Recover the amino acids of this structure.
């Protein structure tokens, strides 16, 4: 990988780190998704922690909406 500016702080990096998720170059300080407010961070969080909860929450909303629609 060639030299690039850290996409977060703009510091020039001879050996930039590439984020595994958004593929942008970053300095050592900002290479982690948490450190550069990665655009993919919300998706990563969903995968790591609350995937089941999020999906269940969504399907619950749809479930209740269906019930309410029936009463209209
Ligand atoms: Zn940086
Ligand atoms: Zn990223």
């Amino acid at each position: 990988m060639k030299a690039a500016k850290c996409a977060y702080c703009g510091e020039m990096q001879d050996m930039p780190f590439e984020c595994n998720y958004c593929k942008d170059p970053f300095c050592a300080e900002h290479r982690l998704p948490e450190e550069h407010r990665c655009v993919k961070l919300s998706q990563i969080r969903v995968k790591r922690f609350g995937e089941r909860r999020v999906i269940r929450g969504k399907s619950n909303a749809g479930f209740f909406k269906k019930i309410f629609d029936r009463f209209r």
